[in-house]
Amino acid sequence: MYIQSVDIKKCRILENVVLRFQTPNDITAQTNGNVINIIAGVNGCGKTSVLRAIYEEFNTPWNTRESIIEFDAFSLNGQFLKHDKKLNVFGQFWHRQRQSIDKGEAKLSDEKLIFLPSQQSFDFQPQAQLELKYVFAQEVNKRTLLGNAEFYIKEYVLGLERKSDIADPKARTRAAINEFNSHFLDADLLTQLDDLSAEQFNRPLFKNVAGERVTIDQLSDGEKQLYARVIALMMLQPQDSIILIDEPEIALHPAWQQKIMSIYANIGQNNQFIIATHSPQIIASVPYQNLILLRKNPETRQIEAVHCDQPPTGVDVNSILSEVMGAEAQPKKLTDLYRQYREFVENKEEHSPQALQIKSELLKLESPESAFMQEMQFLIDLRED
Ligand SMILES: Nc1ncnc2c1ncn2[C@@H]1O[C@H](COP(=O)(O)OP(=O)(O)OP(=O)(O)O)[C@@H](O)[C@H]1O
Ligand SMILES: [Mg+2]
């Protein structure tokens, strides 16, 4: 199941906003069929509203309200369907899905929509048992799934051990734990799963950088964000599903922000991710075709979606910041000093007292080996040769 395009008729500040998404059939999909769409834009431009609108459309019984979204093209069970109001394709699908849930026929692996809203803090409330049943539209929050993360890790490791043919029990546990950690390998985490507690009913124990063992509620904020959200998604075993994630970068170091999407995108197959983010690292990690910018149209004064149809001049974080996000990649003071010093060099006046003054200001901010200072030296050398 995936969405090719939506027309949000009215949701909060969004009115008649049309968004086109990349799908698992497009060339920008990974080899496992997962594809990542990014929605960027300034605070309050409606990123969360887009995710909410899509989620609500899937979550609300079809006949009970006026629809806020029109799905222009929508794919189900590998079949591409053009939206047709008269046929009400989505309504029929919704109804079928509901019936199969009611009859108990729905499997966890069936296609679904998953929504991970932005989440500032986590209270882990260990559950006595892992209760996972298929829900067509699943919001992941404190009440659902996140509290189960600890239980899931334990079951995941024990499940791997059961299937393992390694005879030595210690080696068997170690292999299972290594496999769990391998999902997070890219992130190069300082704290990793270390063991299941023999004293505390197999409670997962992590080892931190000081070599101390900690439980899941003692992880750092960033580690909680990463483990809890990724594990919640792993629990749902998504395939052929739509996955909405709001601000996956929360509490993550830029190096992790760079890697987080590759960790998500290795979960399941043929999933369509739609991500709302402020992170230049995340934006830089996807092909430009997968990027949608929400912005205010200066003439109509309404929010519109801009699809990137050509690559930015660079995909480094600085270019993304200035070209895509409209933010200064460097402090304004530095930009001004660069401009002034460059002028002196171009006029061969770099030895003048004013130029030396500017240079000394510059060298308070960055080293003589900076790219800019090297470029200026190059210009001077060129001239003197
Ligand atoms: N429940 C609501 N009802 C009505 N308007 C809302 C509601 N929630 C948010 N808004 C308004 O909709 C606009 C867009 O909000 P939204 O949360 O979608 O922005 P955003 O792009 O996600 O911003 P941010 O980057 O700060 O998260 C804001 O002006 C906000 O005040
Ligand atoms: Mg938001």
Automatic annotation (TrEMBL):
InterPro entries: AAA+_ATPase, ATPase_AAA_core, Bact_Antivir_Def_Nuclease, P-loop_NTPase. Transmembrane segments: none annotated. It comes from the Bacteria. Pfam families: AAA_21. One of its GO terms (molecular function) is ATP hydrolysis activity. Residues 33-309 form the AAA+ ATPase domain. This is AAA+ ATPase domain-containing protein.
